[in-house]
Structure formats: C-alpha cells, structure tokens
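Q: Joint fold for the lines below.
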Amino acid sequence: MEGYPIGQHKHITPPKAANREQRSEESRARILKAATSIFAEKGPEGARVDEIADQAGINKRMLYHYFGNKENLYLEVLRYNYNKIYTLSKNAINLADEPKVNVARAIRAYFYFLADNEAYVRLTSWEALCVGRFTGKLFPQFFDLIELEFDDLIKDGIERGCIRPDIDIRQAILSVRALCLAYFTQRKIVQSLWREDIFSEEMLEACLQHILNLIFDGLFI
Amino acid sequence: MEGYPIGQHKHITPPKAANREQRSEESRARILKAATSIFAEKGPEGARVDEIADQAGINKRMLYHYFGNKENLYLEVLRYNYNKIYTLSKNAINLADEPKVNVARAIRAYFYFLADNEAYVRLTSWEALCVGRFTGKLFPQFFDLIELEFDDLIKDGIERGCIRPDIDIRQAILSVRALCLAYFTQRKIVQSLWREDIFSEEMLEACLQHILNLIFDGLFI
Amino acid sequence: MEGYPIGQHKHITPPKAANREQRSEESRARILKAATSIFAEKGPEGARVDEIADQAGINKRMLYHYFGNKENLYLEVLRYNYNKIYTLSKNAINLADEPKVNVARAIRAYFYFLADNEAYVRLTSWEALCVGRFTGKLFPQFFDLIELEFDDLIKDGIERGCIRPDIDIRQAILSVRALCLAYFTQRKIVQSLWREDIFSEEMLEACLQHILNLIFDGLFI
Amino acid sequence: MEGYPIGQHKHITPPKAANREQRSEESRARILKAATSIFAEKGPEGARVDEIADQAGINKRMLYHYFGNKENLYLEVLRYNYNKIYTLSKNAINLADEPKVNVARAIRAYFYFLADNEAYVRLTSWEALCVGRFTGKLFPQFFDLIELEFDDLIKDGIERGCIRPDIDIRQAILSVRALCLAYFTQRKIVQSLWREDIFSEEMLEACLQHILNLIFDGLFI
DNA sequence: AATGAATGAGCTTTCATTCAT
DNA sequence: AATGAATGAAAGCTCATTCAT
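A: Joint structure:
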C-alpha cells in the first residue's frame, strides 16, 4: 500500500515473485499481530475470525490460506509469543555470578517482561484454563525448558549453601512464576483495589521488591 | 430452605404448596450445580445453555424462567460459589492465637478449600480473564472482605514483632493467594510435569509446606 | 381471596356452586377484558398469552380452561367487542325522521363510539390485515347486519329525493366507515402531525363536522 | 443502479469486480422483494426471517449480512416502498391546470397506484397499527411531504373560489387517503361482500368515480 | 376451580468455513 | 496472491400449551 522504496523494486532478480513473497510475509505478520491481540483479549472462544481479519486489514480468506483454521492460528499465536520469553530466559543466567544475583536478575527480567507483554500474560492464562479444549499442549514444553535452565542454577545455590537444600525445584519455579504473574493476571481487579497506578515505575519496582523479599526472606521475621 | 418449625415435621398432611416450592427449589439447585460445573469447565463463553440444561436434567425453558438469561445465570453461579469461601475465611482467624498460628491455619484452610473446589478455582480464573466482558465485578467485593479480615491479623503480627513492619498487606494477600492458586489453576499442566499424583494426601501436604516455608522463611537461607 | 360477603354465603341453596359459578364468570370477564386490551394493542401475533394472564391477574392455566387456546380467545374477544357496535347501530335509526337527520345521527353515534372505543378500532384493523391468517371471518357478518340496517334508510332517502339515486349503498357505507375510522386508526400518526390535542371535545366535533360536510356537500363548491 | 455511462455498456471485458457488485446488488434486491411481499402479507411480527430468506432464494446469513437484523430489514422495506409513492405524487400536480382537474388527476393516480401496489397498502396499514412497537416513524415524514405538495394546490383552489374556504387541508388529505385506501385495506372483506370482481377494470373505475363524486358533491343532493 | 412447574417446537441471530472469480 | 459472496450448523432465547397437584 505504501508502495516500494523508490529505486528498489528492480534490485532482486525475479522482482514480482520476491515482492509477492515479501507481501505475503507482511500479511502473515499482520494477521499474527492482530490475532495475538484479539486472542489475548478474548480468549480462543471469544475471539472472532472476522474481527481478526478486520484488524489485520486483510481478507478473511487469506487468514485461512495462511493458517488453515482458527485453532491452528491460535496455536501459531502461542508459539510466536512463547518464543519471546524463551530467548529472554536464556540471557538472564550467568553461572559465574552468585546464585542470589542470578535469581534476582532472572526474576527481575521475567517480571518486567510480563509488565511489558500483557498479551503473553493473558495467553498463558487462557491456555491454562483451556487445556484439553483448545490445545494447551504447547506451554508444558516451554516449562520444561525453563526448568532445565534453572535446574543448574538452583543446584549450584544449594551446593554453595545459600539455598535451602530441601527445596523442590519445580515448586520453586511454580511459586516464582505465580508470584510474578499474579500482578498482571489480576491486573484489572488489582487496579480497582489499589489507589495508585499499578504501572507506574515506582509501583512496579515496589512489587518486584516485595516478591524478592518474599523469596529471600519470607514475610515473617 | 428454612425447614419446618421444629416439632412439626411429622404432621401427616404434606402441604401441597410446600411440595411445589420444594420441587422448584430443587430444580433451581440442580441448574445451579450443573451450571457451576460447566461454567467452571468451559468459561462463560464456552459454556452452552443446552448443555447446562441437559446436565441439570431440566428443560432449557426453565433455566430461563429461573435465571433470566445466560449471563445472569453465570453471575448467580459466581455468587453461589464465592459465598462458600467467604464463610470459610470468617472461621479461620482467632486473634487469641499467635499470628503465625493464625496465618498458617488460614493458609491451610484456604489451600485445602481450593484443593476440594476445583470449580471455584476455575471460576475465579475465568473471571480474572473476562473482566469487562462478562461481569468481573463480583470478585473485587470479596477481595475487599478478605482484606478486611486479614488486616487486623497482620497488624497484630507487626505489633508483636513477628511480621516485617514494611509489609504491604494487599501485596501479601495477593501473594499468598497466588501461591495457593498456582497449583490448582495450573493443575493439568503441573500434573503433566510431576511424576507423582498431585492430589495425593502427601503431595498436597508437601505443597502446602512449601508455601508455608516460603511465607515464613523465603527460599534462601 | 377477599372471602364471601359476610352473611351471604347461606342465601342461595347450593351456596358453593353458585359462588363458584360467580367467581368463574368473574374470571372469564377479567380475562376477556385483559385480552381485549392486549390483542387491541399488539394484535393477534404480538399478543402474549402470559401477558394477558398476568394482566387479568389469573393463572394462565385458567385461560386455557375457559377459552381453549389463544386463537379462540382472540375470536371471543372479537365477538365480545363487535357486539357493542351492533347494539349501537340498532338505536341510531328512526325512519320517522328525515334521512339527513338519521344519517347525521348515525354517523355521529358511530364516530363517537370509535372515539370512546380504541380497542374496537384497533381490533377491526388487525382483523382486516390478518384475514385468512387469524380468523377474519367474523367481521363480514357484522358488516352484513349494518348494511341491512342502512339499506332501508338510504333507499328511503333516494325515494324522498335527497340522496343521489346513483349511489351504491355498499360503497357509501364503506366510505363513511373509512372516513370515521381514519382519525382513530391513524391516531398516533395524526397526533404527531396535528399541533392540537386530537381528543379534545372541540377537535373531535370539528372532525365530525368535516366528515358530515363532506358527505353532504363534498369538498368542492 | 446508476448504470454505465452511455456508450460504454458494450465493452467486451466484463469487469470482475462489477460482476461481483452486480450479483451482490441482485441479492439485496431479491431479499428486499421477498421481504416486501412477506412483511406486507404477515406484518413485522408475523413475518419469519427463514421464510423471507427461502423466498429470496438465499442463505439466511446473507440477509443479516446485508440488513443487520429483522427490524432494520423491515425499515428498509418501508423506505423502499414509500419512495415509490413519493415520486408518484410529485408528478401528479401541475398548477397550470384547473384545481378540479389537478385533484381528480392526483386522486386517480393515487387510487390506481394503490390498486397496483397491494404491498404498499398493507405496509402502511401494519405501520399504523404497530406505531411505537416496530418503528412507525417513517410514514409521518412522507405524510409531511404530501401535505407540502397539496398545500399549494388547495390554497390555489380556495383562491379561485372552487374549494370551500373553511376546509382544513390536513383533514382533507386524511379523508381522501382514507377513502382510497378503504377499498384495498378491506380488500378481502369487501371482496366477500361484493358479488363482482373488485379488481375488474369497470369496478375499479366505478369505485374511483364514487370517491370523486363524494369529494366534489357529497352523497346528498 | 385453581395453580406453579414443565415442555418441545420454533424463533432470531452468530460463526467458522468454503466457493467462485 | 487476493477477494466478496455464500453457507450450514448451532447458539441463545421465546412461546403456546400441558402436567400434576
């Protein structure tokens, strides 16, 4: 629609084909983006194919051309969004650092990722609820990866004597995950209870500190 | 519901009206029960009125007679199920005991309530996601009530010097809630990761202990 | 519900039966009244049996007991309301008077009857439209009666030389009927066009005069 | 609808888009036609969407695609049919002619329009009855237009001394309308009373003459 | 005579998906 | 590659009517 950058449309040998491919890629991306926002907002059952097509600005038929059907599109949306967090967790850990530093950094990274990615937060929530009805088979795989990632870290912490040796790693991960997600899954409810703006820098940081304190020291003295 | 005044329940002539009313009440209850299970399972959008009527063993028309429409039925289901936890929380606290004991008892009660009431767990999850689309105005009220309940308890704990004075009560409640719920909202996913049966007595108790440890001491030494 | 008037329940030999009959008659009447107003307002298709029962303050089941079904109730309503006008037309004509006086009196009686009986006006309108779908076989009978009534009057007028001899009686009746009905069938539309209150005494009289002028002299000079 | 600019309609390559648009327009028209006949026959409440779709030979879904919902379709039907008469009334009056000629011509045009457009006759009747329940807001607008149209004509007649000066224009219009409509709204009833075929040329002309006589001279001598 | 509970058929409307170009 | 028109199955809801007391 915006046309080609001037002087570029002759560069690649079979221009039309390349162009087609490019536009095709663009369409796919637009669909995926629209689908992400709508599936996140309304869930796999509430989302309407028409609405997605509309928001993507493409013909509904193309959506079927690229993604087959609604369920498959939903799956693709999940895959697309889950990949984001995977790359994230990879960079958070550096075994050269102290365990506490690593854990704090990983939690911080995760927490702010969630703050920035409402769609991700909601998609995982929908999936947790729709397990068995609408896929729900994708997330466990990612959980496994994360467990793998943290496994070494926590074992290292236990060896170095700074993490309780009786910790169940899976439970620990689940707990951290739950603590971080809570603010964002309950976003609107929480917002209505708090007086302040939850998404202010200070508030987010305060929440994160609360979580870190809890992880490191518990609520009781 | 109010029953007969004591001493009268053996009178021979069964009042016809009462019988009618009783059957009506029974039907309402059957609908509510079926609706609870199906709304919990499939959410407000995924649930089908036909299915609810079928499962309740009544004619769909009666459902509309008693509850007006689907959304209102959903609301009634929420009300009905939320009331359960409200009465629960009322009985958990006894300010004569030590704060730690109170907190442990309240968390335990809450945790096992969740373990026993999958429907409740799922209903709150749906509501968190559907806020603004399908009601979502009911839960905050209950949250308020719980906050009120715990407020005194935690303040008492702070005064007695066994709870960190810098604790934000609302965050603390949110965290405890999140930690307990996590096992059950992620039920199926978790189940697929754990080898053992999550709902075995030992496993449940282990999970609860993990949460209590975390609350009392954190993960780190 | 209000009980029997004190001291009266022993007067008539089989008291209960008489009373029953009386209450039964009362119920029938209440149903008929409610049905009239609702059928008039919403037509045979728009009317709801529930609404009629509600407005009559009786159990829906009784309505079926007394009238069999909706269509039959509708028919009974028509019969009941058509009878009113029949008795009316009987008293309007007196062959001793001059034809012009008779006609004026008959039209006046008819016009004011319509003004007072919105239900009648609307019921005939519905029936005209629903002919073949919901009865519509009742009105023609009444039309016949009226024709009979007027026949003599107009023939008399023709003989006496004050009515055009080439008049088609049936057309004349139809025209008068149409002219009178127009104000009331178009009631709401007309009301929205006129500034004044259509149902004020003066306005009604003015309309009637217009019709009489038209009948006696036409619009043109 | 606007057709191709003259001289272009023989171009060979049939533009695909145009073809599509054409088919779409055709479907819309088919729906409108079927809806007209069924709404006219059974009224806004009695008409069934399924029946309309069937008669139009299209899938019910398209009906909703084009017209949104039943009520809106009904409105569109009214608009479509009311337009016919509007264009009619525009051409009937020519102030160069004598008032009597103009009035006779207008009435004649109107009368035969009604004879040819049973749907129009019935639609206005339904609307008069359903005012406030199903729209009923469209007709008054057209009445206003017609009033405007005739206003000059009748004022002219009064000035020239051939129309009674005390005539209320609105009443006159209402009366003429009522007289003409009567034959057709009461069509089936009338038919059952008359021996002859009402829609024979002679009969129609006789009815029209009766109306004109009434307007010009009244029934009485 | 009177009633509340119950029903099945049918209504309007919605949705994911496919056809034809 | 892209599109508007079309579809059938199913959803939520309503209604006249009957059952059981």
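Q: Anything notable?
A: Residues 77-219 of chain B form a domain with the Tetracycline Repressor; domain 2 fold (CATH 1.10.357.10). The two ends of chain B are 54 Å apart (CA to CA).
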